[in-house]
Amino acid sequence: MQPLKVKVIDFGISFDDPEEMIGETLQTLCYRSPEILYEDPFSGNIDVWSLGCIAAELSMGTPLFPAKD
């Protein structure tokens, strides 16, 4: 049995240079990681956070962290 592979692809907020990301919205609000909310340094791990939020939403039928602003 092979391990489960998941690909979530969204280039809606993509940048070539990480320096361009300062002060910009980097993730959809419901899936935004703590690093982004607190404006801390971040890595690709923010995508793992978003994937977890998406999986929870698919399982529960409602966003884990519903947000309007």
Automatic annotation (TrEMBL):
User: Which keywords appear in this protein's UniProt record, sorted alphabetically?
Assistant: ATP-binding, Kinase, Nucleotide-binding, Serine/threonine-protein kinase, Transferase
Where does the record place the Protein kinase domain?
1-69
Q: Does the keyword Hydrolase apply?
A: no
Q: Which PROSITE patterns match?
A: PROTEIN_KINASE_DOM
The question of whether Transferase is a record keyword is answered with yes
Any one Gene Ontology MF annotation carried by this entry is: protein serine/threonine kinase activity
Q: InterPro entries, per this entry?
A: Kinase-like_dom_sf, Prot_kinase_dom, Ser_Thr_dual-spec_kinase
Q: Which domain of life is it from?
A: Eukaryota
Name-wise, this protein is: Protein kinase domain-containing protein
Organism of origin is: Pleuronectes platessa
